[in-house]
Amino acid sequence: VTSGDGRPRSRAAVPVSELVEQARAGRTRAVARLISLVEDEAPELREVMAALAPHTGRAHVIGITGAPGVGKSTSTNALVRELRAQDKRVAVLAIDPSSPFSGGALLGDRVRMGDHATDPGVFIRSMASRGHLGGLAWAAPQALRVLDAAGFDVVLVETVGVGQSEVEIAGTADTTLVLLAPGMGDGIQAAKAGILEVGDVYVVNKADRPEAASVRRDLRSMLALTERASGAWRPPVLLMSAQTGEGVERVVEALADHVEHTRGEQLAARRRARARAEVEAIALAAMRRRWGGVASGELDTVADEVATGRTDPYAAADRLLES
Amino acid sequence: VTSGDGRPRSRAAVPVSELVEQARAGRTRAVARLISLVEDEAPELREVMAALAPHTGRAHVIGITGAPGVGKSTSTNALVRELRAQDKRVAVLAIDPSSPFSGGALLGDRVRMGDHATDPGVFIRSMASRGHLGGLAWAAPQALRVLDAAGFDVVLVETVGVGQSEVEIAGTADTTLVLLAPGMGDGIQAAKAGILEVGDVYVVNKADRPEAASVRRDLRSMLALTERASGAWRPPVLLMSAQTGEGVERVVEALADHVEHTRGEQLAARRRARARAEVEAIALAAMRRRWGGVASGELDTVADEVATGRTDPYAAADRLLES
């Protein structure tokens, strides 16, 4: 049985309304099922999102980014441990936008759960972004929406690498934590990767290494060059050792400070930006489906004319938009 | 003076029709100017693309991809040298999608020109992809279109790294060359990066290193597992040393063989896919401008409602599409 648009109906025996209720009651399995619906772009998503909408906006969404090798997953785990010690419910969404071919959850969620495996206050999920345009922009905010409505106090969004997509995600979190480590390249590298623009809290991990202090000093002097309005949040640069747990409490404190400091117009603006990207991605996906629909195939027709030089891409786009 | 949509008018004193004529006559400076118009998303692009359309479809577009460290720019230069020896006009488009903040041409074009600096048969240009959605999909094919119409026999598109964007570009070239090198990680890494799906010609660079032969052997056995239709192109795995020039001639031969083998429906299909992505990106960008236009701001309105839980993203997208 397929739905109207030809996609298979969900495997859900449980009705959506019940799944949503269960997720809101903190049932991990229901949360996982809802996120699978997001990953599958299931037709039920409309209903799910409509049901979740009134219950969103409570979670503190923290983006964690940094180059490979800085110790991102270890740091995420250390933050989870500290947040649990403070009795917060924590979800982790690990996103890997680098590989278009991984398709689905990555290995290692179970490994990463580790000591949290039996703790219902912790939820960890990996998502691969899709290869198609807007896949990342679309799936990540929807998964966040599920976790938010499910009552997690904090959602940590961990991205792999510091590329365009990662910066995009980090940029729409409530708070962005940029992770660095000694020996990961100098300040010019950091500047080039654009991290000086996106961080709300900077953390130099592996603080036990001798060069950690100088990484911190360099970063501080670079950040000092950035102009900020008076009263604006000034990103702290903290030392931490995710391995030993040293400094983790202070980092969690800084993250909470940031969201408190921005509560009001600034936080609202970030959430609006996140919603904007999400709505836009959904609308664009709908347009693409329309253009590429089997019935019309208008896009294929004009693409063929462009490929053979009979028309130019702008004239072709005009025709597509008129159709 | 600004045009109707508020963007600054081009600095062009030369009319577009003349620029196009000059570019078609092989004037390097005119080609460079046209590509700058692409990078600037100049309003004249419509006119430029309309004028170029009838002259496209002649160049052999070769995508070159591979992990950092395999020697991509050295290899590209070696290919340029060999193609010049065969009297082909060659353009190189080097694309860096990793940094959303580089904005504009990268350093080093002049350095890379090296011995080709005074050769009008060679054109080298770096492009940074933009941070916004679809930037890469949009700018790269348009630059290709300029180089194609300008009469270059071969256009080498060199991408940085093997990520999603790179694979996308590589996937729409006429021929995709995947570059590897000994000591760059094992076969599983290669498989994970998705390169087994995209290559038409595989080249193991740094063939003077002792492990080159085993990299080639491993890759061959992995490729042998891929099912291919009878008569389909079977990607060769070649050894090359870009440094010494050894094996370069054979690689150029394989690239020409591939395009000859696919000429007809297969090549047409790839070019249609490239045109499709380009037209779609232009149309989507137009939609986004419409939604985000100062006059309407419909997207901002619905995003605000989503962010505050008053509506859900699907209902919001519906309203956007109806507006």
The largest β sheet of chain A comes out as: 7 strands, parallel
Tell me the Rg of chain A in angstroms. 21 Å
In round numbers, the mean pLDDT of chain A is: 81
> How many strands in all of chain A?
7
| Assembly status | homodimer
* Bulk shape of chain A: globular
Strand content of the residues of chain A, in percent?
5-15%
Strand order of the largest sheet of chain A: 3-2-4-1-5-6-7
Low-confidence stretches of chain A: 1-10, 98-107, 131-136
User: Percent range for helical residues of chain A?
Assistant: 40-55%
Count the helices of chain A. How many?
A: 14
Give the terminus-to-terminus CA distance of chain A. 31 Å
Largest interface: A-B, 69 and 70 residues
| Strand and helix order of chain A | HHHEHEHEHEHEHHEHEHHHH
What class do helices, strands and sheet pairing of chain A give?
Answer: alpha/beta
Structure keywords:
homodimer, 323 residues, alpha/beta, seven-stranded parallel sheet, 14 helices, 12% strand, globular
